[in-house]
Amino acid sequence: MTRSNRILTGVGLGVLAALVIAGYFASPILALQGLTAAAKAGDKARLESAVDFPAVRESLKSQLKASMTRKVEEDPKLRDNPFAAFGQMLLVGVVDKAVDTYATPDAIANMVATNEPPKSISATPGGPVIEQPQPEVKKPKAKSDTEVRYGYVDLDHFRATYRDRKDRDQEPFGLVLERRGLFKWKLVKIELPSLN
Fold first, then answer.
1. What is the distance between the alpha carbons of residues 42 and 18, in angstroms, rounded to a whole number?
2. How far apart are CA 44 and CA 22, in angstroms?
3. How far apart are CA 66 and CA 71, in angstroms?
4. Backbone phi, then psi, for 76, in 5-degree steps?
5. CA 43 – CA 163 distance, rounded (Å)
6. What is the pLDDT of residues 39-55, one digit of tens each?
7. Which of 4, 57, 83, 143 is 20 to 30 A from 168 via CA?
């Protein structure tokens, strides 16, 4: 092999390595765009391949349960009530069933397409967990109205957060994707602003 061939081979391998690294780090953004496109188009097959529904449901359940526990501990009337813990145990079963009913492909598609959390899930002790089991699909917000931030949580988890630019006090709504293989990502967690 001549010197010029070695240089060309080295440059080619360097370019290939740079492309693989760029693809590795850009792949979650592309996956998120694919998820959003599938949600907006109502493509259930693509949506189901981009979402780990059991993981999303478990994340919603744990957020609701943690929020209920926090509200009981913060409320002096509930904290001192001996029946509050019993009521909270009963609500855990209601939360599990409600989330299993609510976290459907249509509901998740609605959240992804509109960049908004559901307004019908409540973790208030004694209150309804879900007011409307299936939300209607809303028109997505204009990109200029939504502040979007992307970032790696670690090498295998990527978070996108959405917030209305006009409401600076609003907590962000988040989507967390998890790496599945070298370039494939799946939605595994929806972070609801009122529960974090």
1. 35
2. 29
3. 9
4. -60, -35
5. 25
6. 888 888 888 889 998 99
7. 57
